[in-house]
Amino acid sequence: MTSLTYALERLGIGSQPNAVWIGGSGAVGSGDELRSRSPIDGSVLATFASATSADVPAVLTASIEAFRTWRTVPGPQRGEFVRRVGNRFREFKDDLASVISWEAGKITQEALGEVQEVIDICDFAVGLSRQLHGLTITSERPQHRLSEQWHPLGPVGVITAFNFPMAVWAWNAALAWVCGDPVVWKPSEKTPLCAIACQAIVAGVLKEMPNVPPGVSTLIVGGRDVGESLSVAPELPLISATGSTAMGRAVAESVATRLGRSLLELGGNNGMIVAPSADLDLTIRAIVFSAVGTCGQRCTTLRRLIVHESLADDVVKRLRSIYDRLPIGNPLEQGTLIGPLIDEQASSAMHLALIRAKVEGGRVHGGERLQEGVPSGGVYVRPALVEIPTGDGIVQQETFAPILYVLRYKTFEEAIAIHNDVPQGLASSIMTSDMREAERFCAAAGSDCGIVNVNVGPSGAEIGGAFGGEKATGGGRESGSDSWKAYMRRATNTINYSTELPLAQGIRFDI
Q1: What is the distance between the alpha carbons of residues 107 and 24, in angstroms, rounded to a whole number?
Q2: 265: annotated active-site residue
Q3: One of 189, 299, 398, 437 is an active-site residue; which one?
Q4: Cα–chain-centroid distance for residue 405?
Q5: What pLDDT is attached to residue 148?
Q6: 4-11 and 192-208 helices cross at what angle (nearest 10)?
């Protein structure tokens, strides 16, 4: 893993980066000082003036201007731009992963995996650029053709969270670009260098392709007021927002007021059912990564383990043994599997959740703050296992930390009921060797989530499938499958190639 200073130098980022970017041109923000701190040791990585709502009009104007040109560029040419972006991410993969590790606290393997996800979605989008398609529909009128066309929608506002500071932007940006839409990005204030690094990559490609308008990629690093300004801006027909359910609800209300579109990726309270026929060795491995990876700070993190009563004691015993020896510490060091929480606020939320779990009858194993053997200044915790008698109370809430609640069930119907009895509906899984149980879990009366897995943990997803969830998760879909349709507008065309003018539904209107 390269040092942060070397990585930033290679990416062309100075010690005082700008908060506002239009293509490769940066501008100083009009707001207060923003300090990027590393969760590894609390050190200050960069200091610069943040943007405010006063800086928003400039990026909107640039995006609108870019859209007038970009929407008329053929899809495969837009794909060439994305192809080059993906290749530059390949070239600077190690450097970008270093920035992620230093600023988001991910272990090296997960940071490299996130950059690879950016590369993968670029590859996906390049292929998609030649496959944006509509339908030809049989007309009820003779010598008429009915068809659909998909057109660029307009500039897209993208609001992202700290935990996947590059990948979620790329899910949106790569698809938006090939669909003909510029992107206005408002990243988390906790990971501004990750966003500036991505913008630097794009800027390098823009230099190679002078015919691409710089406003196809703009960045504005600021606080809540910036996000609110983007949400109410009529210039952005689509707002894609990733974060808490509360944040998503506020964004949705603002966008709905102006009859815009929202694409929401919000809270997850993900469950796994462990059936009597489960392969326990496979199950334990799936549980551990899903529950403690990224220190429990994934929207797909496993938070509720629903285990058949005949297996529960054995599963808890195995997990406790593994949890006690998990290597926790500096994510830059080889062999570390769990890095730090993002900040003190996350630690406080975890602490309060465990206190409440105890009050509600939970038996807590682990969860303590670590002070020895870890870098000072960072927030390091031991993952917690909580045996709890009911799925009510604290179990209904998503705590963005490594807490795994263990619940017992007797019948399969009870397991499904427990699994679905939370407000969120993002990712789910079942560990079973029973084909009927697996199929029932995937069926209409099974999991109510947007992601449903069999013999795979809920955490993580391939870019080829649409990513997103139901209920309080927001209903949005990003990444693969036909998620591209969110970034386009549909036109239904009727072409009359006859010399007559028959009306639909057989209506006669003689004049």
Answers
A1: 30
A2: yes
A3: 299
A4: 23
A5: 97
A6: 30
Both tokens assigned to 498: 């006859």
Q: Write the DSSP string, 41-77.
A: T--EEEEEEPB-GGGHHHHHHHHHHHHHHHTTS-HHH
Hey, which residues does 370 pair with through a beta bridge? 380
Q: What is the dihedral angle through the alpha carbons of 21, 23, 25, 27, rounded to the nearest 10 degrees?
A: -10
Q: E strands within 195-315?
A: 217-220, 238-242, 261-265, 270-274, 302-308
Return the amino acid letter for 152: P
Number of helices (H), then strands (E), in the chain: 14, 25
Q: pTM for the complete prediction?
A: 0.97
**Which residue in the block uniquely carries the two structure tokens 């599963």?**
315
pLDDT for position 3: 86
DSSP labels, 199-230: HHHHHHHHHH-TTS-GGGEEEE-B-HHHHHHH
- Sketch out the chain's domains with CATH numbers: 4-266+474-491 (3.40.605.10), 270-462 (3.40.309.10)
**436-454: pLDDT as tens digits:** 999 999 999 999 999 999 9
Q: Residue 50's Cα: distance from chain center in Å?
A: 23
- Among 114, 117, 265, 387, the active-site one is 265
